[in-house]
Amino acid sequence: MCDRKCAALSVQPYPSRPDEHNFQGFILIFPPHIRVHVSGENVAMEAVYTHGIWMAESLQERTRSQEKFWLVVTHIGDPKAAFLLVFPFTYFISKRAGVTVLWVAAVSEWLNLVFKWMLFGERPFWWIGESRLFVNKQPKVHQVSSTCETGPGSPSGHAMVSAAVWWVVVSSLGSFLYSRTHSVVLSAAPYLLYVVMLLAVGISRIFILAHFPHQVVAGSFTGLILGIVLSRRVPERRPLLFFFSLSVVLLLGALMLYAGLLQLGVDVTWSIALAKKWCSRAEWIRLETLPFSSLTRDCGALLGLGLAQYWKPGGWSLPWAPRALALAFSSMGLYHVNRLPLPVQPQGLFYGLFFVKFIMVPQIVMVLVPGLVHLVTHKKKKD
């Protein structure tokens, strides 16, 4: 059935080297332990990866004194920060914008997981060793505690989720400023800040050897498109069944893709093995960076959003001072929820508790803390 196609294809074990094989035909999307090559494309990708490594080396050499700054930036750009930092801050300024942030964060991170499973992108910290291109001249780079992420590298999740979520924030802020000032220059300021923040996150990901430059660019543009599209379709005041169904569909959809790839002979866990192999310290490998952690976070947050809107449709109405108080207490609550230690074994229990943890995030921000603040301030007014 595939005589013509198969005759043109040569399947080689990973990693492949341009000096070891003749390249004929196309390169198709396969996991890194199997590459299907055709004329010179593998050489082109090796050139892209190699330039990315030298860029990371240059960044580390020139900005070594700013390493702590880049670590802070990469933490701010973490998809988790969209749920634990951007969501509560935005919600207490504008409820609709806050709900939009949570919605966009969950859907964009889920799509990022799907893209990563399909694209099989490398990460610099393991590609340096796996490529065997730097035997004679090792790049002068080092890993940090945030380097050793376990999922595939393309596109960058930090860049993609940040671009999507921050678009919601800056577009809302830009519209607000224009409605109050009618100044194009002033209303454009948030968009300039948006570009600067995305550049900073992208540079931080290259600096710590988590991503190649092209992965950051791909994530940023994809996230921007998702932010624009998803912010126009916000599921406000939808019934609980909608969110329950959406959470189940996303969970089952990802599991079906995972099972389908396994049936095709794809080792979906290839990136985890490489991360463990090439990470400088074993303790830098964290379960929360595994692909299924992202999946349970997204599904849990969406179900939690539905529950929060079910318990208190429209949310609590608070004046500005009580809102600031609610934001402070919500931030404290989320900080402690995030720090709750979860058992790493069995992994099923970890994922289950991780799911519950992010169900609680919207409950704390939208229902529990505002409700308590409303109760206390309302009681004081009566007294």
From TrEMBL:
- Transmembrane segment boundaries: 100-120, 159-179, 191-210, 216-234, 241-261, 349-373
Q: Do you know which Gene3D superfamilies this protein is assigned to?
A: Phosphatidic acid phosphatase type 2/haloperoxidase
Q: Which domain of life is it from?
A: Eukaryota
The yes or no answer to whether the keyword Transferase is present is no
Its top-level enzyme class, in one word, is: hydrolase
Per UniProt, subcellular location reads as: Endoplasmic reticulum membrane
- Residue numbers binding substrate: 123, 205
- Domain named Phosphatidic acid phosphatase type 2/haloperoxidase: residues: 97-231
- Is Magnesium one of the keywords UniProt gives this record? no
Q: What are the alphabetically sorted keywords of the record?
A: Endoplasmic reticulum, Gluconeogenesis, Hydrolase, Membrane, Transmembrane, Transmembrane helix
Instruction: Give the similarity note.
Output: Belongs to the glucose-6-phosphatase family.
Q: What is this protein called?
A: Glucose-6-phosphatase 3
Organism expressing this protein natively: Amphiprion percula (Orange clownfish)
